[in-house]
Amino acid sequence: MDTEKGTYPERQVVPSQDGHDTDHSSDDHAAGSAPKAEEQTYDDRKAWVTVAASSLTMFVYLGVIYSWGILQVKLVETTGSSLTTLTFVGSMATSFMICFSIVSDKIISRIGYRLAALIGGLFMGLGEVLASFTTHHVVALFFLHGLVFGLGGGLCIFVSATRLLLGLQMSYVPLAQAMTTNIISYQSVSTAPMGLFKKHKALAMGFVFGGGSLGSAIMSVVANYLVKDLGVSWTFRILGFVLWGVSIPASYFLPRRITSGKKPSRQLQWYRFKEPRFLLLVGGTVLSCFPLFIPPYFIPIFSRSMGYTKEIGIIILACWNLASTLGRVVAGWVADTFLGPVESLAICMLFMALSSLIVWPLSSSIGIFSVYLIFNGIGCGAFFSLTPIAVSATFGGENTLSIIPVVWTTWFCGFFFVSHSMP
């Protein structure tokens, strides 16, 4: 920004590989001032190890998030609180996945990916283990599951997602510009154009976020049997130990950080709110956030209203999560191969809208409800994995990590208030 004139420098827009105009507003500064750093490359094995570690963290984190709908039914009995209040606790934990992203990015820029993921994993497990001793006190659950677990999860999620974006950003810019710029948590360094992935960008993100959906499907079923056989307190403890046992070792396989001789400051690109295409992207994704967590919280309840047992309701929820897993992986492949990330994201948002507006209200039988589960699960799952790719394709890979925290922060209302407002 020109401090004397109070204006931003003219941004260069070039066509990207998928046909969309791509913004490279930060290229000139990075190319002209960034010192040369030691070349750092990631071969296929290291790239996919990073994907696996991130996917495992997502597996346990979202597995716990999506199991809350089962835990809260039992907590109604132990706490004496209403289902709406307990849904509020779950919404609080979920919202930190989004609203903590700006703070998470600053933490990562200081201590690196590995240590940030380690701290996040410690907090996640600690929140659940301590919550196991307070299952009769809803206020303590707000603090331990909502805040402690939520903060740790928000940090881990940002590490898992942004680590993949480091590779994605190289792929939607011309090679000559990619050779000059690479952004690692607000650090601009000069490196060779070797991101984590070139051909399978969206597919890699699909596997990372798909791990979360798979964890949701498996852990929700497991949590149901744990609550039934061991009680809600021991279920919290076991979930906490699982979080520690998976996320802490997985953090070791993430890179510490990439350093350079100079660390120029980099601001979040709040000025994007002046751009119509950014407002369109933010507006569309914010509205899409409102129905995202209604299905996992209320599918078991809706299933029981249809006359099915609790166990059948859990299986139905697992089917929705499996459809979400399929959507994240397949949508990533489609975005890489056929349609591009923006078009794929638009189709998935259409799946979410039409399934909720048309199919769910007509779901008087398991057959019609299955149609809803498939299309809504695919749409909701792909929404998470495709949004960062769409941002990269639209605004330029080198701007992605300066825009994603801004976009994710705007999602807070949809994540926090909607499930709490449901009857």
TrEMBL record:
Record-level Gene Ontology MF annotations: transmembrane transporter activity
Residues covered by region (Disordered): 1-39
Key words of the record: Membrane, Transmembrane, Transmembrane helix
Topology within the bilayer: Multi-pass membrane protein
Start-end of Basic and acidic residues biased regions: 18-39
Gene3D superfamilies: MFS general substrate transporter like domains
Cellular component terms (Gene Ontology): membrane
Listed transmembrane segments: 47-71, 83-103, 115-133, 139-161, 202-222, 234-255, 276-294, 314-335, 342-360, 366-391, 403-422
Entry's localization field: Membrane
Keyword match DNA repair: no
PANTHER family: MAJOR FACILITATOR SUPERFAMILY (MFS) PROFILE DOMAIN-CONTAINING PROTEIN (PTHR11360:SF305), MONOCARBOXYLATE TRANSPORTER (PTHR11360)
Family, per entry: Belongs to the major facilitator superfamily. Monocarboxylate porter (TC 2.A.1.13) family.
Protein name: Major facilitator superfamily domain-containing protein
